[in-house]
Amino acid sequence: MARRHHYKRRTKGPAHEIDVTTFLNLMVILVPFLLITAVFSRLTIVELNLPSSAGGASATEQGFRPEVIVREGNIEITNGSVTIASIPKVDDEYDLVTLQDMMVSLKKEYPDQNAASVLMERMIPYDYLIQVMDVVRSVEIAVEGSDNEYELYALFTEISVGDAP
Questions:
Q1: Which of 44, 75, 111, 162 could form a disulfide with 51 if both were Cys (CB 3.0 to 4.6 A apart)?
Q2: Alpha-helix residue ranges (DSSP H) falling in 42-95
Q3: Where are the domains of the chain?
Q4: pLDDT 10s digits, 121-161
Q5: 38 with 30: CB under 8 angstroms?
Q6: How far, CA to CA in Å, does 146 sit from each of 51, 104, 149?
Q7: Contact, 163 vs 111, CB < 8 A?
């Protein structure tokens, strides 16, 4: 009788399986953590109006609309063609405190007006655009009887940006 050799058949396939339990444990911890911290990150969006190409005539029909023009040597506040004030630089920096005072006085004269324009010359750094927009939009005024408390008052909240003439 012939002997038959019985060999164990080798099965093809991976010898080891991938253990995903550590990865799942990591996901169980990371997903709630990321969801909790995502609530605290907020973006602030300021809606701006860009000037239209038809421009000019509609601004005169609306009445008073302040224009803050940031030039290389000064800041001008105008009402279209009439210059209201010119604020020169102090120590090579724009005088934003005086601009703030002027914008507050203009808001007191025209309390119903919410629109304003910020116009910049081409070579002015972007940071000055943001600083001037913040001054034109709102002002922090100290609360009476307190040293460290300030209230935020809205001035001209509808801001249009553009190039200076």
A1: 162
A2: 57-62
A3: 65-163
A4: 988 998 999 999 999 998 887 777 777 777 888 888 888 88
A5: no
A6: 41, 21, 6
A7: no
133 with 119: CB under 8 angstroms? no
pLDDT of residue 5: 63
Residues in Cβ contact with 159 at an 8 Å cutoff, skipping those fewer than 6 apart: 46, 48, 49, 115, 116, 117, 118, 133, 136, 137
What residues contact 78, with CB distance under 8 A and at least 6 apart? 66, 67, 69, 84
Contact between residue 69 and residue 132 where contact means Cβ atoms under 8 Å apart = no
Let me know the angle formed at the C-alpha of 47 by 44 and 50, rounded to the nearest 5 degrees: 145
CATH topology of domain 65-163: Nucleotidyltransferase; domain 5 (3.30.420)
Tokens of 9: 């058949």
Please report where in the chains the tokens 């972007």 appear, as a residue.
126
pLDDT tens column, 20-50: 899 999 999 999 888 887 766 566 666 666 6
What's the pTM value of the predicted model, to 2 decimals? 0.63
- In terms of C-beta distances under 8 Å and separation of at least 24 residues, what long-range contacts does 138-144 make, across chains too? 139/100, 139/103, 139/104
**Nearest-angstrom CA–CA distance, 165 and 163:** 6
